[in-house]
Amino acid sequence: MRALTVQPLKPGSAELRDVPEPSPGPGEMLVDGLAVGVCGTDREIVAGEYGWAPAGRDRLVLGHESLGRVLTAPPDSSFAPGDLVVGVVRRPDPEPCGACAHGEFDMCRNGGYTERGIKDLDGYASEHWTVEPGYAVKLDPRLEHVGVLMEPTSVVAKAWDQIERVGRRSWFEPRCVLVTGAGPIGLLAALLGVQRGLDVHVLDVVTDGPKPEVVRALGAHYHSSGIGDVTARAKPDVIIEATGVSAVVFEAMASTAAYGIVCLTGVSPVGRAISVDLGAAGRDMVLENDVVVGSVNANLSHYAAAAGALAEADPEWLARLITRRLPLDRYAEALEAHPADIKVVLEL
Ligand code: BGC
């Protein structure tokens, strides 16, 4: 069968290769791959900046944003052939740290976790794949065309969970959220904000293409001015940062309301120094009880929350987030980022 593979840390090594058909181990399911989403992490892996091949091999099957249909499932599992399914990305450290031992592998403390398509485990960008039922999530059959958005939705479900846990340290009744970046993570974070009944503002640099209209269709406000203008007017209780752009990250930290919470979800590039007044920012954080919290990955409870959020969302709005769908053999085009892209999907 065909799989999209890469040699981690070797730039430009992505190749479609013939690999052996997977055979499910005891208790595992065999899945017919339908689609994988392409994200910034995949592009970093292909650029040779990130990623680990499975032990003893030099190539990794890419793909962590999965969608498939169950072909075979163990009779004692809660899955049956034909079910729409998504595979979880992370597995706990085999010698679990405290967090992994408590099912919170998204909070792994010792870095010993593994991740499908990213770290030490083959991903889901292959015509067939296997998965343990305990690390698979069943999706509403109506989500067949958009279910590939499940993994990024799990990431924002975790971000919201973190924000709400931080908020609960004291009285917390947020009314307004600002999301910086109208990519898939930003737009899905905005969706979950609207589902919480909040006044949602989304900031991005583009003024044309699909993003402004997609934000408005959600009932949220789209801005392309400076972050300072938006925060002065909207006074967000919460900022979800989804650009990873250093200057935006710092401005987000410096512009919340008192008792503000900034959740960073974008992975910033390293080595691009900017000059900032950390004293002023730290002073505001102390005097306003502000919090900056980083959030990555998602555990099973976040996948369950994401499945619920997607089932509740308008499937037509979700479909607007997928701006390009390409067959697997056109992977090179999918890996190129275009300015008008929201989510690019490879069909398997
Ligand atoms: C994935 C996460 C993963 C992270 C770091 C992200 O793109 O969505 O699941 O933990 O990369 O590897």
UniProtKB/TrEMBL annotation:
Its cofactor is Zn(2+). The lineage of its organism: Bacteria, Bacillati, Actinomycetota, Actinomycetes, Micromonosporales. This is Threonine dehydrogenase. Residues 1-26 are annotated as: Disordered. The keyword Zinc applies. It holds the Pfam family Glu_dehyd_C. One of its GO terms (molecular function) is metal ion binding. The gene is gdh. Residues 145-348 form the Glucose dehydrogenase C-terminal domain. InterPro entries: ADH-like_N, Glu_dehyd_C, GroES-like_sf, NAD(P)-bd_dom_sf, Zn_alcohol_dh. The keyword Metal-binding applies. SUPFAM superfamilies: GroES-like, NAD(P)-binding Rossmann-fold domains. Keywords: Metal-binding, Oxidoreductase, Zinc. Residues 25-139 form the Alcohol dehydrogenase-like N-terminal domain.
